[in-house]
Design goal:
The complex is a heterodimer.
Chain A lengths: L1 E6 L3 E5 L5 E5 L2 E6 L5 E3 L27 E5 L4 E2 L5 E4 L4 E8 L13 E6 L9 E7 L11 E10 L8 E8 L16 E4 L11 E8 L6 E8 L10 E12 L11 H9 L2 E4 L4 E4 L5 E6 L9 E5 L2 E3 L2 E3 L1 E7 L3 E6 L9 E7 L2 E5 L3
Antiparallel strand pairs in A: 1-2, 2-3, 3-4, 4-5, 6-9, 7-8, 8-11, 9-10, 10-17, 11-16, 12-15, 12-17, 13-14, 13-16, 18-27, 19-20, 19-26, 20-25, 21-27, 22-23, 22-26, 24-25
Chain B lengths: L1 E6 L4 E6 L4 E3 L6 H11 L10
Antiparallel strand pairs in B: 1-2, 2-3
The chains are: A mainly beta, B alpha+beta.
């Protein structure tokens, strides 16, 4: 090996017998170029990144299919902004999670919204409101045995009392045990934990690094405040956006994904729409109709329905609905007489359908 | 609390969660169905199926 240049601060360039050029910074190999001009680099940090490095879906809090404000009751897992679940230990219905336009500013920050996690003004009950996201196992298997870095932006509301916040990456040894079982996963470990941050009223970016166990088959991310204290003021909240989990030991710029693709990624887990379709009278009294999902679901989803539907001037109550297979579902309407197998189209409707295949 | 649903005209069967009326499929990957199975394992019995 021949040294081409060596200067203080660990900067070194060398060439070996095969003609490979190696550059070190801080005494660590950073770049190698072989005699076929193939370059190998430890990290690339650029504003226009290669994309899809972020294992967190909706890390920019851009997708809000279910609505933009949610009341949070103690002990219930509530999905809010897409893919993000909330669990509260504050007694009663004492919390609100909502979309906020408060976001970091400056070059390279592309977050449209943040998630605002609030203890309601005047509440004296104490406890914590955690947010969490479970990464589908099939999207994390390659992280086993690897270093990962979690990065995020956070700020406190003007009256925040929740104390420091513990950003946690949790793993388990059974695939896809989900969010409602998050605190009882089998084989739980915490590759990232205890790097508590104390949010201020100024947006600040933090990161933490850990190593995923080689036998990990599931992974989740959660933010756990120490706990609210005293009587809540007008903005006893914390705000988070720009959440990213990536391979490697440094936090690179946030992985921008366009709105359409991020929405599709979210719709693998949840999708909703208004009633709008053509139905078929299958037995002289009920109208059934089939709707196809925009995105096939992770699993056969749980279906909820609301509202009313009118088929060509005749109201049809929504009696039942269920998923059938993974790409469509059927709902039976009622109070509709007519010829069997005759098609009717929806002329007015309210409410809609809601399909969840969340973890 | 849950209720079994069986719609013979469409050959559809599912579990209805009574608290919100949601229809839960018999899919072991569905987390709501997993919760239903845990409820059954505790010795509970769903309301019988209608037809």
């Amino acid at each position: 090996m021949t040294t081409l240049n060596s200067v203080p601060n660990g900067l070194l360039s060398t060439v070996d017998a095969t003609g490979t050029l190696t550059v070190q910074t801080n005494s660590v190999n950073a770049l190698a170029i072989d005699n076929n001009q193939n370059a190998t680099m430890n990290y690339i940090s650029a504003q226009n990144t290669f994309g899809f490095k972020n294992r967190v879906i909706n890390g920019a809090m851009n997708i809000w299919q279910r609505g933009t404000s949610f009341s949070i009751a103690s002990g219930s897992f509530v999905y809010t902004t897409d893919r993000w679940c909330v669990i509260s230990s504050v007694t009663g219905t004492s919390g609100t999670v909502s979309q906020s336009t408060s976001v970091p500013t400056g070059a390279g920050n592309i977050f449209p919204y943040s998630i605002k996690v609030q203890r309601n003004s005047g509440v004296t009950a104490t406890g914590a409101i955690n947010i969490l996201q479970v990464v589908e196992s099939t999207n994390m298997y390659d992280l086993a045995g690897q270093s990962v870095t979690l990065s995020f932006w956070i700020k406190a509301g003007a009256n925040y009392t929740g104390g420091s916040i513990n950003p946690i990456v949790q793993t388990g040894t059974v695939a896809d045990q989900g969010s409602t079982n998050f605190y009882s996963w089998t084989g739980t470990t915490y590759p990232i934990a205890g790097n508590n941050v104390t949010p201020t009223t100024t947006w600040t970016k933090y990161s933490a690094t850990g190593t995923i166990p080689s036998n990990a088959l599931e992974l989740g991310i959660t933010f756990v405040p120490t706990g609210f204290t005293g009587t809540a003021g007008a903005d006893d909240s914390y705000y988070i956006t720009g959440v990213q989990l990536e391979k490697g030991s440094i936090a690179t710029p946030f992985d921008y994904r366009d709105y359409g693709r991020e929405l599709q990624m979210c719709q693998r887990y949840y999708e909703q729409d208004a009633w709008s379709a053509v139905g078929v009278n299958t037995n002289g009294s009920n109208i059934n109709w089939i709707m196809f999902y925009k995105v096939p679901k992770r699993a056969t989803p749980t279906l909820s329905v609301s509202g009313t539907v009118t088929f060509q001037g005749i109201a049809a109550g929504i009696s039942q609905g269920a998923a059938s297979g993974n790409i469509n579902w059927i709902v039976g309407g009622t109070s509709r007489s007519g010829s069997t197998y005759q098609a009717y189209y929806v002329t007015s409707d309210s409410g809609g359908w809601y399909s969840s295949a969340e973890l | 609390m849950y209720k079994l649903i069986n719609i013979t005209t469409t050959n559809l069967q599912w579990v209805q969660r009574i608290s919100d009326g949601a229809s839960i499929p018999f899919d072991e990957h569905n987390t709501d169905y997993q919760e239903y199975l845990k409820w059954i394992a505790l010795g509970n019995t769903p309301q019988s199926a209608n037809t």
